[in-house]
Write a structure and sequence with these properties.
The complex is a heterodimer of chains A (267) and B (385).
Chain A lengths: L3 H5 L4 H7 L3 H6 L2 E4 L9 H5 L27 H5 L5 E5 L10 E7 L11 E5 L5 E11 L9 E7 L8 E3 L7 E3 L4 E2 H9 L5 H8 L11 H13 L18 E2 H5 L1 H8 L5
Antiparallel strand pairs in A: 1-2, 2-3, 3-6, 4-5, 4-7, 5-6, 8-9
Helix pairs in contact in A: 6-8
Chain B lengths: L6 E4 L3 H12 L5 E4 L15 E2 L6 H15 L1 H5 L14 E5 L2 H16 L5 E3 L1 H7 L10 E5 L3 E2 L2 H14 L3 E3 L4 E7 L2 E7 L2 E4 L3 E3 L5 H6 L8 E10 L9 E4 L4 E5 L5 E5 L16 H12 L7 E12 L6 E3 L7 E5 L9 H13 L29
Parallel strand pairs in B: 1-2, 1-12, 2-8, 4-14, 12-19
Antiparallel strand pairs in B: 3-7, 4-6, 5-6, 9-10, 10-11, 13-16, 13-17, 14-15, 15-16, 18-19
Helix pairs in contact in B: 1-6, 1-9
The chains are: A alpha+beta (267), B alpha/beta (385).
Bound molecules: flavin-adenine dinucleotide (FAD) and iron/sulfur cluster (2 copies).
Amino acid sequence: MDKTLEKTGIPTTEQVESAFPPQERLDEGAVAIIECFQRIPCNPCATSCPRGAIVPFEDINDTPVIKNENCNGCTLCITKCPGLAIMVVDTTWKDPAGLDRALIKLPYEFRPLPAVGDEVIATDRAGAFVTKAEVVQVLLNHAMNKVPIVTIAVEKSLMRTVRGIHLDARQRAVVCRCNDLDEADIAAYIAGGATSIDELKRVTRLGMGPCQGRNCVPIVQGMLARTLGVPVAELSPGTYRPTVKSIALGDLAEYDSARDELGDGEK
Amino acid sequence: MKNTADYVIIGGGISGVTVGYFLIKHGAKNVVILERDYLTAGATGRCGAGIRQQWGTELNCLTAKYSCEFFENAKEELKYDDAIDIEFHQGGYLLLISTEKELEQTKKNIALQNNLGIASRLLDKSEIKQIAPALSMDGLLAGAFHQKDGHLNPFHTTQAFAQAFKRMGGIIHTNTYVTGITTTGGRVTGVDTTQGHISTDCIINAAGGYSQQVAQMVGVELPLYSERHNILVTEPVERALNPVIMSFSLNFYCQQVPHGSFIMGRTCDNQPRDLRTTADSEFPVHMARSITKAMPSLKKLRMLRQWAGLYNMSPDKCPIYSGTPELAGFYTAAGFSGRGFMLAPATGQSMTEMILGLEPTLPWQRLGLSRFEEGGELILEPSVV
Ligand SMILES: Cc1cc2nc3c(=O)[nH]c(=O)nc-3n(C[C@H](O)[C@H](O)[C@H](O)COP(=O)(O)OP(=O)(O)OC[C@H]3O[C@@H](n4cnc5c(N)ncnc54)[C@H](O)[C@@H]3O)c2cc1C
Ligand code: SF4
Ligand code: SF4
């Protein structure tokens, strides 16, 4: 079996192709494209679709199957998918510029958000430059689970290649989203003599945001290993501290009454 | 690694880098700092980095004032580069008063502070409300406030000193563990480290919570113990609290750093004294309880992380700035009892004056080890946490 996805995190052309509906369906209007290929315990897409377009899961590990005829491209599932695995494509858009462009509606969780009319860089699934694209709509409201949707117009021929946007011509590679650190920031500290995650944490706040290092630490361990010429396994893993997940102070304060009510988890 | 030095400082926390910086500033050469991990790996990288001048003894007030004035001018003095921001936020320290006894003591302290040029003042409830609108007034009698108090970023402050120290010729070896100290005939001759031996006739023990361990290498028993203290941080939010708030009787301190996070701590019972810095699972619950009582609007704020560090406690909860009578060339800057960050510029200056034989800026010789001997005079500070 092709292991590209497991190794690189990037699906193969065949996998992407399999997520797209047939041309006839594309010709009918907006439709969700779900690129979720691995069995993982996750199901918000299936439970969120108001039109029953995502077949109910029998097992929480099922991968989503979409009934294209039920989907009207409403974009609701985009905002529910924690993996940002869903986009909506509309090839029936009446392009005011008279060009042959399709709309792609993408989840976009970075700040700042682009504005309508902006020209942004459209990237492929590996994050590489594909083309420039016009922003047609930017949506974010309270019902959207804090997931903004940015709609861009791209040439139909590139519709299967484009899967992301970049606002910044510098093409910075963000490493720590919580504290907005990019690869160049971290590389400079490593070049300046930092040799461990804990050390970088103290100067940059790397890994100290809400994700507590889940996203950035593996990336930065790789950077340290490459720069220092030491295998990752030999690097200090860094200190992990409670709590595993962020928790409201008000809930913590009521911990004792909750424990009295629910028990402490021991049988 | 060069195998000789005129001065060897053990410990790369805020005390080590300030002692190094002031030594060079006053003309010392060949100064080396040895740190077993990396800069700020000890208490410095784990502290609240709060600085207040509201103390109850003259020496503590003046020492804190000296340090505060240094931090106010740190950029001109240290000339660190723009990538560093020591984030000195002078939003004041607001000490909450909830018992008559505290009120009595505070009035005395304020009179003393005002005499020494520290413009602290007593606040009534409506004045407290203005300074910290989010505070609940339940159970409060009054507050004590001094605008020039505040907090810094401990990592960047340490880096700022380290940068100046290196620029002026100082050397820092990180990942270098001091494993032994060599002596002959009642004086030090060098240090053994995991990276080799360095000969020197002057060693400054600035090893924070590990300073007893270092002193034991030469058979000196410092009258200190290290105790774990817990602290936590929340997600960052827009500024909602300007001063550091602190209460002795309610047992907490809390501040919002410029980055937006709230950082808070309290003194917990039954903390280990064996150099452990693991997390105490009871702490966040007690902390959350006291802080949501004092500031109910924080109930929704999410805690991200808790950690712990060592308070290095001395018998009178004041630091030890001292030589060692029985061992020439062995100096101690330790025992900060939970406030070594705010004292750091004074630590650097006073140790330098002692080592180089300069005229003392303040009567810091009172902080020597001899105060713990019979007939010695302790510095009894009424306002420690
Ligand atoms: C939770 C908490 C909150 C605090 N809040 C405040 C506050 O708000 N304001 C304030 O002023 N102070 C505060 N403090 C106290 C303050 O952090 C310390 O007093 C201060 O940081 C001490 O600095 P230091 O350089 O003396 O020690 P440290 O920072 O502990 O540095 C000692 C260094 O020595 C190194 N070392 C130890 N043994 C060896 C060896 N054998 N060889 C080489 N290196 C060695 C260690 O790795 C360490 O880096 C707080 C402390 C804690 C734990
Ligand atoms: S776009 Fe709307 S209709 Fe289509 S699958 Fe998602 S939620 Fe269902
Ligand atoms: S919500 Fe997203 S990640 Fe989860 S199963 Fe559905 S498509 Fe996959």
